[in-house]
Specification:
With 95 residues, the chain is mainly alpha-helical. It folds into two domains: 1-57; 58-95, no CATH class. Helix content is 79%, strand content 0%.
């Protein structure tokens, strides 16, 4: 696949996600949306690997790190201060 076509598809999917999410969130629980996003992503990546004939090889010694990152990655990411929320609160306190 041409790299420019792949980039165009990625841009359309990333941009369209916000539009679709805004419409869907009003009618569907966030947990279901998260589950469906995960299933679609895993299915797409599995199909890509299968169609290309590649196999993901992970060494046995790396599984512990995968589990640690899997369990802590999202909570740590959610707890870090986001620059946009910092500036929003900062500007609110000054005004």
């Amino acid at each position: 696949m041409n790299v420019y076509i792949a980039l165009l598809v990625q841009i359309l999917v990333a941009g369209g996600t916000h539009i679709v999410a805004k419409a869907v969130v009003a009618h569907v629980d966030a947990g279901i949306i998260l589950f469906l996003r995960t299933v679609i992503s895993v299915s797409a990546m599995t199909a890509i690997f299968f169609l290309r004939g590649k196999r993901l090889r992970i060494e046995r010694s790396d599984w512990g790190m995968f589990l640690l990152v899997g369990f802590l990655g999202v909570p740590v990411n959610q707890q870090r201060p986001h620059s946009s929320s910092y500036f929003h609160v900062f500007s609110w306190q000054r005004g």
